[in-house]
Amino acid sequence: MRNKGLIIALTLVVTALCAYFLFFTYISRGVQQKAVAYATHDGKLDEGQRQHYLDSVWRAPVFGPFTYREVRQSELGLGLDLKGGMHVTLEVSPVEIVRAMSGNSKDPAFNKALEQAQQAQKTNSGTPFTALFAQAYQQNAPGQPLARIFANTTNKSRNIDINSSNEKVIGAIDKEVEEAIDRSFNILRTRVDKFGVNQPTIQRVKGTGRLQIELPGVDNPDRVRKLLQGQAKLEFWEVWNQNEVGPYLVALDKQLQARDAAAKAGPATATAFADTTATATAGDSTSLAAQLAKKSGKTAADSSATANKAGALAKLFTMPGRLGVNLRDTSAMNTILRSPEAKATLPPTLALLWSLKPTTIDKQEYLELIPVRKTRDGVPPLGGEVVSDARSDIGQNGQPEVLMSMTPSGARKWQKMTAANIGKQVAMVLDDYVCSAPVVQSEISGGGTSITGSFTIEDTQDLANQLKAGKLPAPTRIVEEAVVGPSLGKEAINQGLYSSLAGVVIIMIFMALYYGRAGVVADIALLFNIFLILGVLAQFGTALTLPGIAGLILVMGTSVDANVLIFERIREELDHGLGLTDAINKGYSRAFSAIFDSNVTTMLIAVILGFFGTGPVQSFAITLGIGVLTSFLSAVFVSRLIIEWMVKGNENHPMTFSTSISRNLFKNLNFDIVGKRKIAYTFSAVFIIIGFGLMYVQGGPNLGVDFKGGRAYVVDFNKTMVASDVADKIRPAFQDAGLEVKQYGSPDRLRITTGYLAEDESAAADAKVTAALNQGLQQYSADAPAIKSTSKVGATIADDIKRTSVLSLGLTLLGIFVYVLFRFDKWQYSMAAVVALFHDALLVIAAFPIARLFGANYEMDQIFVAAVLTVIGFSMNDTVVIYDRIREYLRENPKLTFAQVVNPALNSTFSRTMITFTTVFLVVLVMYIFGGETLRSFSFAMIIGVIFGTYSSLFIATPIILDTYGKKEERERLAAGEDVSNLSGDAPKLSTTTV
Question: Looking at residue 90, what is its pLDDT?
Fold first, then answer.
């Protein structure tokens, strides 16, 4: 093997990294088990105590210097479908942005164009809103420039005047929309981070105005919806001096001391409050009591004595030089600020608000409390609507700064406010968090303000976005939503675990029985491959989801394909009389080309799915893509290193590549496979016609919520329910809108899908549909119906999913066409491969209405699309192996024609085709049985696809080349005067026999 040292070094490095990150997963699970043990009393888990334990160690070392927070960031996380929680896709509406830039224009043509653009986007979601708006405006105001609407004081800083072209105006609008999405992203990221869940994620969806948010473990969806869809609230407030607020805080501290003393003197019923707050040392000179003592001129000894007598509040103020607490103590401080003592002691005009970002001092993170001076009526002197612009810049001293501009009315109020607060702080508060509290240096007129401080460029960019958030609100709406209950998550973990273990065991037993000692080596490589996949997922912070487990199971099935190719080649070379070492070297060398090609085509599918897919499809694609790379390393290189180490220097080593079961299996085959091609063509055509005919009779394809929009609910009962009866009884509650009720995994669990108010994506519509469902379920109150999960897909995003699904399929076929043409030089190979793959997709689609005829009612959703594309990849692997063998035969026997080598090539690769089919089929069958209802549609499509994919690679793909290129070659040779008498007869025996 070439570059053996480099490969060994790479393998060791990758192994060490994977072990490192998976070890953090082990540590994290240990901490979580301790939290459960801490919170379990008399066999019952107190969720509040469990979370309190995890919060208390969040920033405490749990393994060496690593805190629990750092451990969680490096562990292998679980997706919402395995853990429970909420997934939300938000869309930032550009309508209000365009309206605000127009200065809320009342122009009839402008407002009608906005209306028409909104309607057009429902059916043209792939076209930018601004382009639809510009088109609609030209229809309503022919020849009128957009500049007449947008040339105003608001857009002066964007260099838009009355002479600006339509392209320039639309460009400015596009830029503002993009910035608004960024601002929304930053605001929501802050809100999500403050929400209090472990490992929340928020990311932008490429090429859209959408944001995807995942909140594991949340149990209050209404609160999440309110949090995510509420408008950003920017306010400007005056700030109390520390000397002014100090006496109130000292008085509160004394109140807390008195309370704690009373609790100690009373019965032993005191709470663990002192334990959660006593985080500072008694002699901490930065405590509130010590600072106040210092201000009053007391000695250091007096200060220390005062600090020793400090109450719970003083012990929390540990931030050096400022009024702040250690980040881990914010929960305890919030408890104090919400206490009756605080409400009785602090004046109603004093609000202690947290700063937006923590400050790091001596490797400790602190969060500052800003004493904001509120008004009696709660109305701020200035609101965010007065900010006309804010941008990051570099000041004259070379330091980053923020330049803020205000509207004329805002500028006058700002001048008055700054004049009254020279030398004092003014707090800029976003959603009740202080994003900045600069000191006013002088009275500011005109509204133009420079905000300076110890900022980085990133800080000033963030602050500018936050200040602009109040100026141009970009309303958000939930276009896709899924809520998974924790009980369903636990059930999904068991299903995924059982199906994964069963798949691994079946493959390992099969390989050992078929290949003997070599099969055991393949099993070791398989286990190593699984270890690598999980390790890489942990390294990149990618959560493992149920579709991800499906990808993992599929990778296990297909990863042995490389070893099958290699071992069959080695068996062939041994049959030709080569020694063991030479046979191993030649087997690996000859199999490499086919392995490489099949992995490239699978990776192409994974990349397309990852780029265009969202949610579950993307998770599946990531796992599949990682699996392709790790399979190549483990099967091609690691297995070879093990085998070469075992047989090194011993030609008589008892290494076996077959057993008594497989030794003579598939030997000397001579099937006339291409001779049956017309029968295959007829069968495929009849199957597809029947399937699509049934689909038409059944009213169209059984599309899932992903493709048609709507809402779906999983409901548990305490007894077996008849789905059709439930549907008949609850249908009136949905005003006879589209309704489907079916069993979901178990007889006492139903999945209820409705198209009621599918076009309305508002929160009010969500509540109305849920109320209708509850109304319909009231008649089953004795059967204790409980909603375990919900999901919603808006009509717009459903159209997008359909569009990207078709695009994914088209790009996959195009990519395969180009790659096969590049590898095999003839367009007939590419054309035949694409036709066969399209044929496979049609067969899988046709199988669904046929299965529906027999009572198996499976939906076509995003996961179904992933299954179809995976079937294409599986089928392409088979086809590439056959093409590779045909190419090899033609190179080694240049006098033979395609027609002469096609049947020998199909027969020689038949054993590999059937072994790969068997392993993958067994794995997807296990997935179908144990994988749970969520993956039922996927696994059914895979079962059908694996069967027909194997069939098409033998009877469709290669025979099509014979009917195009092969016949042409025969005519060309006949015209050249060659003897072609044997082209239709038996092919001569080739030097390369069985694989």
Answer: 80
Kindly list the distances between the CA atom of residue 56 and the CA atoms of 31, 67, 622, 776, in Å, as whole numbers in the listed order.
11, 11, 34, 44
Contact 870, 898 (CB under 8 A): no
pLDDT of residue 335: 86
β-pairing, 387-394 with 382-383? unpaired
Beta pairing partners, 393: 401
**pLDDT of 275 higher than 70:** no
* Range of weakest confidence among 279-293, 412-426, 746-760, 795-809: 279-293
Contact 398/425 with Cβ under 8 angstroms?
Answer: no
Strand partners, 383: 235
User: Cβ of 206: how many Cβ atoms within 10 Å?
Assistant: 9
Cα–Cα distances (Å) from 671 to 664, 666, 667, 955, 987, in that order, read 16, 11, 12, 12, 12
Q: Which two tokens stand for residue 351?
A: 């609000």
747 three-class SS: strand
Percent of the chain with pLDDT over 90: 8
Burial (CB count within 10 angstroms: exposed 0-12, middle 13-18, buried 19+), residue 105: middle
Question: Rounded to a whole number, what is the largest CA-CA distance in the chain?
Answer: 116
CA atoms of 31 and 27, how far apart (whole Å): 6
Backbone torsion region of residue 775, taken as left when φ is above 0, otherwise alpha when ψ lies between -120 and 50, otherwise beta = alpha
CA distance 481 to 214: 10
Output the CA–CA distances (angstroms, integers) from residue 719 to 455, 485, 724, 749, 782, in the order listed: 62, 20, 15, 9, 10
**Pairing between strand 40-41 and 44-45?**
antiparallel
Name the E strands within 101-184.
Answer: none
Bigger pLDDT: 268 vs 388 = 388
Q: Would you call 484 helix, strand, or coil by DSSP?
A: strand
710: β partners: 793
b/e per residue, 264-279, with b = 16+ CB within 10 A? Answer: eeeeeeeeebeebbeb
Cβ–Cβ < 8 Å for 75, 537 = no
Q: Which residues pair with 422 in a beta bridge?
A: 440
| Highest mean predicted confidence (pLDDT) among 189-198, 483-492, 729-738, 885-894 | 885-894
Given CA atoms 147, 149, 150, 154 in this order, what sign does their dihedral have? positive
The answer, yes or no, to whether residue 125 has pLDDT greater than 50, is yes
Q: Give whole-number Cα distances, 475 to 118, 229, 319, 353, 482, in Å.
A: 14, 7, 38, 26, 21
Of 745, 747, 750, the closest CA to residue 712 belongs to 750
Alpha-carbon span 859 to 694, nearest angstrom? 15
CA 277 to CA 259: how far, in whole Å? 14
How many other C-beta atoms can be found within 10 angstroms of the C-beta atom of residue 860?
22
Q: In sequence order, what are the residues at sequence separation of 6 or more whose Cβ sits closer than 8 angstroms to the Cβ of residue 98?
A: 114, 129, 130, 133, 173, 177
- State how far the Cα of 23 lies from the Cα of 26, in Å rounded to an integer: 5
Using CA atoms, how far residue 289 sits from 262, 286, 337, in Å, is 21, 8, 17
pLDDT > 50? residue 159? yes
- What confidence category does residue 992 fall into, taking pLDDT thresholds of 50, 70 and 90? very low
Q: Is a pLDDT exceeding 80 seen at residue 137?
A: yes
Token pair for residue 942?
């895979």
**Residue 818 structure tokens:** 């180009």
Residue 728 structure tokens? 């008949």
Per-residue pLDDT tens digits for 622-669: 888 898 888 888 888 888 888 888 888 676 767 788 888 877 777 777
Angstrom distance (rounded) from CA 675 to CA 267:
94
Which tops the pLDDT comparison, 579 or 490? 579
Residue 835's Cβ-side half-sphere holds a number of Cα atoms within 13 Å equal to 18
Mention every residue, 6+ apart, whose C-beta is less than 8 A from residue 701: 695, 845, 848, 849, 860
pLDDT at 854 over 80: yes
> Is the dihedral angle over the CA atoms 185, 187, 190, 191 positive or is it negative?
negative
What is the sign of the dihedral through the CA atoms of 204, 205, 211 and 214? negative
